[in-house]
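Example record

The entry below shows one chain as it appears in the dataset: sequence first, then structure tokens.
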Amino acid sequence: MPNIDIPVSVDLQKMFDLPACTDIKLPKPSPLSVTLPTGGSLKAFADISKGIPTDCSMTFSLLVQIAPLLASMDCLLKILGLLQPLIDVIKGLPFPPVKAISDFIKAAVKLAPCLAMPTGAPLVPFVKDILCLILKVLKCFVGQLKTIAGVMGGLSIQIQAAQGSGNAELLNALQCAQDNATTSAQHVTQAIEPIGALLGLLGPILSLTGQKPIALPAMGGATDAEALNQVVKILEGVTEAIQIVTDAMGGC
């Protein structure tokens, strides 16, 4: 059967052309953080379940974290408010000023509710629930990273085939897809970082319950499928450690 060339307009021909990689390239992750008065920092959580994070979603994530942080600082600020009148009382011994004693009593009354904070056994349900949440989200990350690693591995094979056949147009499209897969992996691995910070904050409370703190080891870059699989192995090791602790507390 003979081939018949049908002329088409330039505009129609452009519709059949593959888009340039710059037009469909995924945005690089842009981390956001808030410096804490104590010298540490809060990092924005990238909610990968809702697609590629944006500046708006990352900012909202920080706002959600800041609200409970401000609430948790309440007792700390009351303790700091107690120190100055206490210093004034001590300086005035053996006959401290009446005003210093009055200010100290007022500050102590405000602090009283904070002294009822539970320690030891009553903390177990609280710690267990947080660890169960961390366990679930880590498993989610592992599943997504495994999927991306599979995609990256398949693209590598297709890229080699395109290079061998000299198909420049297909090669360009495949390399663009590989770049996007790498960017997706970077978004996921970046979203894991705040989990490590959360585990660090949970460490002292874990010690009060008789458990050893759990740390998230440093992870390498997600540049290819092999590197991504190494990250998966690290996360699986952490999930196993958390699973052991939560099982000892009654399980999730």
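Notes for this example: The longest strand covers residues 33-35. The chain has a mean pLDDT of 79.
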